[in-house]
């Protein structure tokens, strides 16, 4: 695509060509918005991951290409929380087709699976400890109840976060076979189907 020098460098536009500043109208982005993510959100996701994980352990649940991979294959299993257009928290999931998670689960999406593997939940540093992680997980699980093919959600986490996920209704399955460097994990599971009553009454 070609671009004239003037349009490519807006600050060089002559004054009479600049768009008028709207009078009395405020720029409005939704204060709070929840929506599925798309591959275009991958950079924002990875910025949060970089701070939340890489700066702490040098590792992260999903590298940038993996974020793009899952947001291309199964964007409907992601959920982002945006404040005034800025991503503040997110969940990325994919489908899995076995009882327990294996190394393959870290990179694969199994379209015929009935288990949602939650790869990552993360909240931007400045928005933590405000209930956002719990609320986002709650909304995500509500949403999963509306997907008829989903029976359960699983995740693996470090031991210190087990109580956090238990508060959201997850149950400990046991130690995970998966290790990442020195990190070991507990596998946890949430029965989506076990909430049939809530599904019937959730307006799906
Ligand atoms: C874990 C995380 C998602 C929680 O989100 P949040 O919005 O801060 O959590 P909430 O405000 O909903 O709930 C706070 C609770 O989370 C738990 N929690 C959060 N961070 C914790 C930590 N570092 N150690 C232990 N518990 C923690 C506690 O139970 C806490 O409750 P308390 O303050 O009464 O002890 C968020 O802290 C985060 O993004 N951390 C970095 C990334 C990460 O570890 N993600 C999870 C693994 S995939």
From TrEMBL:
Keywords: Acyltransferase, Biological rhythms, Cytoplasm, Melatonin biosynthesis, Phosphoprotein, Transferase. It is an enzyme of class 2 (transferase). The keyword Ribosomal protein does not apply. It is found in: Cytoplasm. Residues 32-193 form the N-acetyltransferase domain. GO terms for biological process: circadian rhythm; melatonin biosynthetic process; response to light stimulus. Belongs to the acetyltransferase family. AANAT subfamily. This is Serotonin N-acetyltransferase. It comes from Betta splendens (Siamese fighting fish).
